[in-house]
Design brief:
There is one protein chain. The chain is α/β, with parallel strands linked by helices. It has 2 domains: 25-183, no CATH class; 196-433, Alpha/Beta hydrolase fold, catalytic domain (Rossmann fold). Helices cover 48% and strands 13% of the residues. It has an 8-stranded mixed beta sheet, sandwiched between helices. Strands 1-2 form a two-stranded antiparallel ribbon. It is elongated, with a radius of gyration of 27 Å.
């Protein structure tokens, strides 16, 4: 027994427990960033599981540890839990660096299922983990129970609240984009009857989906229009609703309805997005889709000699390249080529020369294609304009579309240009396929 200040009492050794920390704005922001960085890959796990279960289990384990660590830090903020959170964030970053920049997971890129709506979703997840790691390390270095004045606390929350909101919004948007891949094709099957979803190609180990719409089944083979969505080669997907459709533009639905009403089948595809998949990945996927339609024309009840292509924005650029850029037919469905009967490019840039572009457009081109002059020329339909191309409809303008139309006409290619409605696009295809 020991007497302390004249009182008898029990001796209590110094506590070795990790001291508690304040739930300030830095800690809360780090927790939100860690949750967002973990939830984004978790949202894509169903799609990843369909491709390879081993990668799905690895990513699921890292995501689960990150979520548990974030909850632990928020529920019991101590130096020990902050270090746990920092460890979880660092582990997620190591997995991202190993799989994406270094490419050490060689079977296929496991981040691709998360990048089907925005090609930079994995970068968003990595950025959130960097923010979480930094925040946890800062919090862990603080003294126990730092309790500044009320004025300082309020000021800190006011200053960091916009950052917290931005981090929360980024995490939610990334999770929604990654989760949109969960409804992709479950298997590579052809249509038994009617419209449906098929896997048209497996590029770099990743299954790519095609939706096929037609007015009726059991009819003779019909002409088909392949539709390529817009989004700057960075955003969007094939779906008629959801975040991908919002980012890809609004013309697909009305155009699909007009084409099917005139007896066409309409095929719309997902293709790999930049920067997750560098150029020429989207063009390779579009070519593979044409070859798939030709190779499986009998099963799909489409006419392989009457395949046309349409696109909006940079989807129209890809459509134009299918019309004017020959070659490049490597991969599945050998013995078939990717030539098409007609091309409709709506509001599609025909050239990616960086000169004269505004900063935002310039940045989007650099993200999609990089800054290599040879790549920019290769991705520009204007470079390839020449004789032998199918009839073109260049509707609603687009960067240097007038010059592109002039070069096509000079080469003897029939060209229609100017503002067009969905009905006029369908009429153009009906005339070209007649």
């Amino acid at each position: 027994m020991k007497v302390v200040d004249g009182q008898r009492g029990s001796y209590r050794p110094p506590s070795t427990a990790s001291p508690a920390l304040r739930r300030g704005p830095v800690l809360v922001t780090a927790v939100v960033a860690a949750l967002g960085g973990a939830v984004i890959p978790a949202a894509a796990l169903p799609a990843l599981w369909r491709v390879w279960q081993l990668y799905a289990m690895l990513f699921g384990l890292v995501a689960a540890v990150g979520i548990v660590a974030a909850v632990a830090v928020l529920g019991r903020p101590t130096r020990r839990t902050a270090h746990f959170g920092a460890f979880a964030a660092a582990s997620a970053l190591v997995l991202w660096v190993a799989s994406r920049p270094l490419g050490l997971l060689t079977r296929f890129d496991p981040w691709q299922p998360a990048d089907t709506v925005a090609g930079f979703t994995d970068w968003v997840a990595a950025g959130l983990q960097v923010l979480a790691l930094s925040g946890f390390l800062v919090v862990a270095r603080r003294r126990a129970h730092p309790w500044p004045s009320a004025v300082r606390r309020v000021t800190a929350w006011i200053l960091l609240f916009p950052v917290l909101v931005a981090v929360l919004a980024t995490g939610v948007a990334g999770a929604v984009a990654a989760g949109d891949s969960s409804t992709g094709p479950a298997a590579s099957t052809l249509l038994d009857a009617g419209p449906g979803t098929v896997e048209y190609c497996r590029s770099a180990g990743i299954p790519l989906a095609m939706d096929i719409y037609r007015r009726s089944t059991g009819a003779p083979p019909v002409p088909v229009v392949l539709f390529l969505h817009g989004g700057g080669l960075v955003l969007g997907n094939r779906k008629p609703a959801g975040p991908g459709a919002l980012l890809a533009g609004s013309r697909f639905g009305p155009l699909r309805d007009e084409l099917t009403a005139q007896g066409f089948a309409v095929a719309v595809i997902d293709f790999r997005l930049a920067p997750a998949a560098p150029w020429p990945a989207p063009l390779d996927d579009a070519r593979c889709a044409v070859r798939f339609l030709k190779a499986n024309a009998a099963a799909l009840a489409v006419d392989p000699a009457r395949i046309a292509v349409a696109g909006t924005g940079t989807g129209g650029t890809l459509a134009s390249l299918l019309g004017v850029a020959r070659g490049g037919d490597t991969g599945p469905y050998q013995g078939q080529d990717s030539t098409v009967r007609a091309v409709a490019a709506l509001a599609a840039p025909a050239d990616f020369d960086l000169a004269g572009l505004d900063p935002l457009t310039r940045a989007s081109v650099l993200v999609a294609l990089g800054r290599s002059p040879s790549t920019l020329r290769e991705a520009s339909p204007l470079t390839h304009a020449g004789p032998g191309a199918p009839p073109f409809l260049l509707g609603d303008g687009g960067r240097k579309s007038g010059e592109f139309a002039a070069r096509l006409r000079a080469a003897g290619v029939p060209v229609t240009d100017g503002p067009v409605s969905e009905r006029q696009v369908a009429d153009f295809f009906a005339a070209a396929d007649g």
